[in-house]
Amino acid sequence: MASSVHNNRLSSPRSFGCCRTCNMWCWRAFKWLPVILVVSIITWSYYAYVIQLCIFTLESTVQKTIYLLVYHILLIMFCWSYWRTIFADIKQIPEKYKLPPEDLEKLLSAESEDAQRTFLDNFAKDLPIVTRTMSGSVRYCNRCVLVKPDRAHHCSICARCVLKMDHHCPWVNNCVCFHNYKFFMLFLGYALIYCLFIMLTCLPYFIKFWKGDFGTSASSGRYHVVFAFFVALMFATTLGSLFGYHCYLVAHNRTTLEAFRAPMFRGGTDKNGFSIGAFNNFKEVFGNSPNLWMLPVFTSYGDGIVYPLPRPDEDTESLLSSERWERWGERARPFDERESSSYDEL
Fold first, then answer.
1. Do 163 and 149 contact (CB within 8 A), yes or no?
2. Which residues are the active-site residues?
3. DSSP 191-254
4. pTM of this prediction?
5. Cα distance between the two ends of the chain
6. Residue 13: its pLDDT value, please?
């Protein structure tokens, strides 16, 4: 009897570890389902458009050539942008923002909340941060054990803090953030154009189908073309609103999180606190080389940690100069030490 109880005690942690590992892998596989769905729809749309419409339906060789050329250009740019959004190299928060074990022990052993605030203020005084929590405290993540850089937030799905986090997108199984925001914008833009192109080129055949002039009732290929029109229309409507909203965010230099909750500065909340003019805001995401704007290659300004802020006595056209970025990278903007703070997490 004692031996049986002893064996159960030994096997329980092992069984628990196996279940935990199994759950982890199941969760990882589950998160890829939206991506698999998108890839499946793209694969089917290729069959419906290229095979059923262009090869089997169109009669004009010139029309086939033009349709196939434009379609494959859009498809390549769409898939390239989607790939880069999913597999972008999202870098970790620099080590200087993380509390060493001895500092963490001091923070946890502080006698009061005021002592914790003072400790975090002293730790972050040389870090290039200008934002705080709504209560005025240094933004600290107790799960990652680090002081959050400006515009960084903790993603509960990725289980880490992410630089300039916009949101976690299940359709790309990744966080949309500083390192892939340009790719995400291009993904939305090319996906919208891709759907509009399919919708417009399939529209004449949908009208023929509606009138009963599109093939025979035994022809199954025509249903693929008609269904491609409806699917493209549905996704174009959704993508149009989403792409338009993110264009608005880019023009105002906001993330989705900042649109719902304005960042807190030493003078209070300011929803336009990072805006340096619409064109400069655009260049901050897409870079300064127009020939690379439409390509999913990384050209965004900065490092995702420090950002230029508008000054009333400074020309906004100079805010994206290399000297400005170097100056911001060298030192932090001073805090107003008189404002109140609290040990908080946002």
1. yes
2. 169
3. HHHHHHHHHHHHHHHHHHHHHT-SS-TT-SHHHHHHHHHHHHHHHHHHHHHHHHHHHHHHHHT-
4. 0.84
5. 52
6. 58
